[in-house]
Amino acid sequence: MISLDINGKSYQVNVEPDVPLLWVIRERLQLTGTKFGCGIGMCGSCTVHIDGKAQRSCQTPVGSAQGKKITTIEGLPADHPVKKAWVQEQVPQCGYCQPGQIMQAAALLAEDPRPTDAKINEQMNGNLCRCGTYPKILSAIRLASRGGKK
Question: 20 to 30 A Cα–Cα from 77, which one of 47, 100, 117, 141?
Fold first, then answer.
């Protein structure tokens, strides 16, 4: 049994320790906000926070997440500045990549509340958006870093 702390709740799952955390989150726990994109950690759709750091859950063995605090998009409060900025800036088009984008942006702002555009671009570079909403993503992160003030 693997013990997990996800979004402040404790879970016990009967899986092998090398199963990707993504599949435990989605298939076993039915927290489907975290998306499967590429399976090789290159697109960012599966991004979650592990002990406050953005991590690709498709590349994280569930056994290595045991004893750590895991946050998925469902665990990020509705009034989180990044979520609010995403709505205000009308970022999503298809929306598929957005949970990973939001989780990456939230981790960035937790580490650096006032990042430069260069730092935003560097930190968000590994999160792909096939709809090309990058300008709106940048605007939303800037807005969130200013506390929602344009």
Answer: 117
Residue by residue, what is the 3-state secondary structure of 13-33?
ECCCCCCEHHHHHHHHCCCCC
Q: What pLDDT digit, counting tens, does each position of 20-70 carry? A: 999 999 999 999 999 999 999 999 999 999 999 999 999 999 999 999 999
In terms of Cα–Cα distance, which of 50, 147, 33 is closest to 101? 33
- Label residue 147 by pLDDT band (50, 70, 90): confident
Rounded Cα distance, 45 and 35, in Å: 5
Determine the Cα angle at 65 with ends 32 and 77, to 5°.
45
Report field, pTM of the whole predicted structure over 0.90? yes
What CA–CA distances, in Å, run from 54 to 6, 131, 138, 149? 14, 22, 18, 25
**Which token pair is 54?**
């953005």
Rounded Cα–Cα distance for residues 50 and 124 (Å): 17
* Residue 98 Cα to chain centre, angstroms: 8
